[in-house]
Amino acid sequence: MWLRVLGSAAGGGSPQWNCGCPVCAAVRSGAARPRTQSSVAVSADRRSWFLINASPDVRGQIEAFPGLWPDEDRVSPLKAVLLTDAELDHTLGLLLLREARGLRLCATPAVHKTLRDGSGLLRTLELYCPVEWRAVVPGADVPLADGLSCRAFDVPTTKRDRFGPAADHGRVVGYRLTDERGGGSLVYLPGVQALTPALRAEIAGCACLLIDGTCWRDDELVRLGLAGKTSREMGHLPIDGPDGTLAQLPSLDIGRVIFVHLNNTNPVLLEDTAERRLVAAAGMEVAVDGLEVEV
Asked: How many other C-beta atoms are found inside a 10 Å radius of the C-beta of residue 226?
């Protein structure tokens, strides 16, 4: 099984168009890497690929990865799009895929309802191409392709739903993908507010965990004067702190930990910072666009 990180940043990318924070300034000066918005592609054979989330940067991400290029008859190796939630930075790219002959969309009923009746994004997309919705049921193992299966799991959140009443289940999910031939698995979890016992059980024992690294500190955006909410209030567990991911993950049996969905303000995006060195000292990694993982 192979995974390609198409985009490693949170919503807005890095640099964010309206931000002049130290990280964005460093990217614009060439001192740090630019990053596009969060998405990955997964394959069992490097011929058929499954996209997890479709970011607003999806066109550029496809062009940067030959594995997703179509043939001369416009036949794409992209077989389906799996969604972790209905956030705009994870779904706006669906509209940029509207030239497809048809799209297979895998999402929970809660996410599907939000896209259809809340944001209206799905109704717009269906005016351009046929959309086949496959319901994602958390806890159920589903074959994606020969040798590749996935299981979604519910990720509790108290983050406000901008497009309607909050659903009890399925509003945010993570995915555990398993190579059926070798038995190895990886987990993609770009948004998590708290590592509950149930979530710890879902990620334990995986060969690779790609996990929410949005903010370093819980009050990061508040300290910078860029927002009035903490990281947790926005639905994201910070990396640092006594109960942050950096402190909690070492107790789990995980082969490799990679932080994804990194906000443009996060100091780990700069390679020569104390925060980045702490991540490296813990044996963990910070994702970059184009990173490939084999399990």
From this structure: 15
What's the pLDDT at 165? 66
CA torsion through residues 65, 95, 106, 256, sign: positive
**How many beta carbons lie within 10 A of that of residue 41, not counting itself?**
22
Q: Could you tell me the pTM of the whole model?
A: 0.97
Phi first, then psi, for residue 114 (nearest 5°) are -65, -45
For the chain, which domains are there?
2-294 (3.60.15.10)
- Flag whether pLDDT at 166 surpasses 80: no
Q: How far, in Å, are 86, 225, 230 from residue 162 at the CA level?
A: 10, 23, 17
Secondary structure percentages of the chain, helix, strand, coil, to 5: 25, 25, 50
Beta strand extents in the chain (DSSP E only)? 2-7, 39-43, 49-52, 78-82, 103-107, 131-135, 141-145, 148-154, 173-179, 185-189, 208-212, 257-260, 285-286, 292-294
Q: How many whole angstroms separate alpha carbon 139 and alpha carbon 127? A: 32
Q: Which of the four pLDDT bands, split at 50, 70 and 90, describes residue 227?
A: confident
Cβ-based neighbour number of residue 96 at 10 Å: 16
Q: Which residues contact 223 (CB under 8 A, 6 or more apart)?
A: 217
**Among all chains, which residue has been given the structure tokens 């639905």?**
235
On the 0-12 / 13-18 / 19+ scale of CB atoms within 10 A, 147 is middle
Burial of 287 (0-12, 13-18, 19+ CB in 10 A): buried
Q: Cβ distance 40 to 223 under 8 Å?
A: no
Report which of 96, 98, 117 is spatially closest to residue 37, judged by C-alpha positions: 96
- pLDDT value at position 185? 97
pLDDT for res 160: 83
Tell me the C-alpha distance between 110 and 10, whole Å. Answer: 22
Residue 176 has pLDDT above 70, yes or no: yes
